[in-house]
Write a structure and sequence with these properties.
- By secondary structure, this protein is of the alpha+beta class.
- About 30% of the residues lie in helices and about 25% in strands.
- It has one domain.
């Protein structure tokens, strides 16, 4: 799986964020956002964390849980290291496939302020190819945040809330003893195999052992549909192999 940086309150941060800094008019006043550049920046991202509300929509690819102290749902996007099978050669996303929220939020995210950890600030990826001084919509208008930046803040806040719900969901599954370490040995059509490991899955045999009162509490929190969506996404490993077979390198 792609390397991810820990942010326990809202789960892991994808590796597409490498050098983030708080948004400031003085530093970023001339920048513009241009999403027409596509998703080439995510070409090497083979897994991405999901907010709780995304899990059902994203289950067209395998959904597993990240290993480590904060197990959170993660959409698997590729079977090889640094390969995203959803990003096409031209940098566009695979038609009809769900675009994870982190990629729609990029290059922005909410982070705790360095001088006040209880305060959140909007930050951006300073080296993002989506930002430049030449093309796109301005982040600031005469020194004030533009509607583009205001919309980015709203989406980043909603994304963080969904990720926090995902963290709570993953912890509950772990506390209930439903998670198990897993690995997948995948065979390509043209020959050769690849092993994908370092993740957790839900043990379907243990789901029936969840106490009724716990299951009812999960239903009230909207966790049942995501739980079964993750279980039903397991056969999607075959879809990833089909997509891998379409690549010349496969």
């Amino acid at each position: 799986m792609s390397a991810i940086n820990p942010a326990p309150e809202a789960g892991p941060i994808p590796a597409i964020f490498r050098a983030v800094e708080a948004v400031e008019a003085g530093r970023h006043g001339a920048l513009r956002l241009d999403r027409r550049t596509g998703f080439a920046y995510a070409r090497q991202l083979n897994a991405v964390p999901l907010g709780l509300t995304e899990i059902v929509a994203a289950s067209e690819t395998p959904i597993v849980l990240s290993a480590g102290p904060v197990p959170v749902p993660v959409a698997v996007l590729g079977v090889r290291a640094e390969e995203n099978l959803l990003v096409q050669e031209n940098g566009e996303w695979r038609p009809g496939a769900y675009v994870p929220g982190w990629l729609r939020c990029y290059p922005f995210l909410l982070l705790p302020a360095t001088d006040a950890p209880d305060k959140l600030v909007l930050a951006l990826e300073s080296g993002s190819p989506l930002l430049s001084a030449d093309a796109g919509e301005p982040l600031f208008d005469e020194g004030n945040p533009s509607e583009v930046l205001a919309a980015a803040l709203r989406f980043a806040a909603a994304m963080r809330a969904a990720l926090q719900d995902s963290v709570a969901f993953g912890r509950a599954l772990n506390d209930a003893g439903l998670l198990r370490p897993q690995q997948a040995d995948l065979t390509f059509r043209a020959g050769g195999t690849v092993r994908v490991d370092g993740f957790l899955t839900i043990d379907p045999d243990k789901v029936d052992d969840v106490p009724d009162e716990t299951f009812l509490a999960w239903r009230r929190r909207g966790w049942i549909a995501p739980l079964y969506a993750m279980l039903h996404s397991t056969p999607r490993w075959g879809r990833l192999l089909d997509w891998a077979a379409e690549r010349p390198s496969a």
